[in-house]
Each structure stands twice: as structure tokens, then as C-alpha cells.
């Protein structure tokens, strides 16, 4: 038997849309900041904002200057991280290995 999606009020739909837009804009801003160097990948990995916690690690690495798909795949493989892993889903060990692999340890 198929389940139907719950009926939502227009206020609930509008609220969900606003939240989705806030998350999309925050991710786009983070990518721009990574590319320009205004945001360090170390800071993003160690303390992602609430809007960025669900962002894919691969997506954020690809946003960095000088990072292409092949290099990102190699880095993620070396760090033992799945392509589907999100920032909040990283274990402490995965986060530490990724930081070491990227060579961006905080001094």
C-alpha cells in the first residue's frame, strides 16, 4: 500500500521553502569563499555552520581552487572517506585523516 505525503498548510510549505533557500545560499556562499580563499577548508571541516552540516565533503573540496575531480577522488580515497559522506557525518578519525591529507593542520 502506498503512503501519501502529509498535507501541509501554505505556511508550512513557505517555511520549508525558506529553509531550503537559506541552506542553498549558505552552501553557495561557502563554495565561493573556499574558491577565493576567504574560508579555510580546515575551519569548515572542524566547525561547519548549521546550514553546511549536510553538505557533501566532496562538493566542498571541489569548490577549492586547484582541486579537480581526480585530485578530490584521490584525497578522499587516501583519507578513507566515501563520496556520499557529509560534513557532519565525518568521524573524528576521518576528519583528522582528511586534514592531514590536505596538509591544512592548524599551526
Structure description:
With 107 residues, the protein is mainly α. It is 57% helix and 0% strand. It is built from 5 helices and no strands. The longest helix is centred in the N-terminal third of the chain and has 27 residues, at 10-36. It starts with 9 loop residues before the first helix and ends in a 5-residue tail after the last helix.
Question: Could you write a compact summary of the structure shown?
Answer:
The protein has 107 residues and is an all-alpha fold. The protein contains 5 helices and no strands. Helix 4 (69-79) packs across helix 5.
Any descriptors?
single chain, globular, 107 residues, 5 helices
What is the radius of gyration? 17 Å
**If you average the pLDDT, what whole number results?**
92
The helix content, as a percent range, equals 55-70%
The CA-CA distance between the termini, in Å, is 57 Å
Number of helices: 5
Give the number of DSSP strands. Answer: 0
Low-confidence stretches: none
**Which structural class fits the helix and strand makeup?**
mainly alpha
**Net shape:** globular
Major sheet characteristics? none
Order of helices and strands: HHHHH
Give the strand content: under 5%
Could you outline the blueprint of secondary structure elements for this entry?
Elements: H1 10-36, H2 41-46, H3 57-62, H4 69-79, H5 92-102
Amino acid at each position: 500500500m502506498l503512503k501519501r505525503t502529509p498535507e501541509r498548510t501554505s505556511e508550512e510549505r513557505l517555511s520549508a521553502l525558506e529553509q531550503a533557500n537559506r541552506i542553498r545560499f549558505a552552501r553557495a556562499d561557502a563554495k565561493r569563499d573556499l574558491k577565493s580563499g576567504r574560508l579555510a577548508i580546515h575551519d569548515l571541516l572542524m566547525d561547519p555552520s548549521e546550514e553546511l552540516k549536510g553538505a557533501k565533503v566532496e562538493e566542498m573540496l571541489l569548490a577549492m581552487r586547484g582541486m579537480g575531480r581526480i585530485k578530490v577522488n584521490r584525497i578522499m580515497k587516501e583519507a578513507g572517506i566515501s563520496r556520499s559522506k557529509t560534513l557532519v557525518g565525518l568521524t573524528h578519525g576521518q576528519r583528522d585523516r582528511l586534514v592531514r591529507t590536505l596538509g591544512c593542520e592548524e599551526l
